[in-house]
Specification:
Length: about 100
């Protein structure tokens, strides 16, 4: 569990800060380049929608970045969010030990 970053950024934040702003693209233009709706992109950028395999593939082609980078970023964010929500339950689980059985 220690391998999960405490506060990883949502992939939408990465897109906004590392690509959208530096490239000087509007959300509308970026969405059109990806072949998705502006609403879909906006929801991703605001952290209200996840990166799907479809979106990861589109981002991979357009930004010349492996799609699994985006899938991994989404998984890290999802894990961190879930860990925060169920931390009390997780703390009750003990690592497997053959002696315990």
């Amino acid at each position: 569990m220690n391998q999960i970053p405490e506060n990883p950024p949502h992939p939408g934040e990465l897109i906004k800060e590392l690509y959208l702003k530096p490239l000087g693209l509007t959300q509308y233009r970026f969405a059109k380049c990806l072949g998705i709706s502006q609403t879909r992109l906006s929801e991703i950028l605001e952290g209200h929608r996840s990166i799907t395999a479809d979106t990861a593939l589109r981002l991979g082609i357009f930004l010349s970045i492996e799609p699994d980078f985006w899938m991994h970023a989404q998984a890290q964010w999802d894990l961190a969010q879930k860990k925060e929500k169920i931390q009390d339950e997780l703390s009750k689980i003990k690592p497997y030990s053959p002696e315990a059985f």
